[in-house]
Specification:
alpha/beta, Nucleotidyltransferase, domain 5, 7 strands, about 40% helix
Length: about 170
């Protein structure tokens, strides 16, 4: 059994776990307060690495072999002070996710958003990702709300990996 994990990184990001039968799990990336972040801090949360590790182990049994992880590639860009802090938070989140995956020895494939979104004809409209994921996997309870677009993107990342990277037929 091949397990594919799609991860949309970030504090509001999500993770989807697929196998040959479909969607095994979809969940928001767990976060926790940043120790010592004061009331004026723009970034007050960070990825809870221990909780992420536990969730991945829960949904990827050892007897299934090593899952393939599809991680959306993120980059930083210049900008105003707030943008710099936000991008710093994104890179901190990415580093925490990468560390968990490395400790678990899960192989990772990075994919640029433009590349995987091209497969589905998606642009920047978050509603399109929800509609596309629902079209592929039905009305998943994890994708009921408009704010579940990051979960939908995680599902689509995993589906991209299943079809385009591993060549598994849908």
């Amino acid at each position: 059994m091949t397990i594919i994990i799609g991860i949309d990184p970030g504090l509001t990001g999500a993770c989807a776990v697929l196998d040959h039968q479909g969607v095994r799990a979809v969940f928001d990336l767990p976060t926790m307060p940043v120790p010592g972040a004061g009331p004026k801090a723009l970034v007050k949360r960070k990825i809870d690495s221990r909780a992420l590790c536990s969730l991945l182990l829960k949904h990827c049994p050892a007897d299934a072999g090593k899952p393939q992880v599809i991680l959306e590639q993120v980059n930083t860009m210049g900008g105003a002070n707030n943008a710099v802090q936000t991008q710093g938070s994104l890179m901190r989140s990415l580093g925490a996710i990468e560390t968990v995956l490395e400790c678990l020895r899960f192989p990772v494939e990075y994919v640029a958003p433009q590349r995987w979104k091209r497969r589905y004809g998606l642009g920047s409209d978050k509603k399109e990702a929800l509609e596309t994921a629902r079209g592929l996997y039905g009305e998943l309870p994890e994708l009921k709300r408009q704010k579940d677009h990051n979960r939908a993107e995680a599902v689509l990342l995993a589906h991209w990996g299943k079809i385009d990277l591993l060549g598994v037929q849908a």
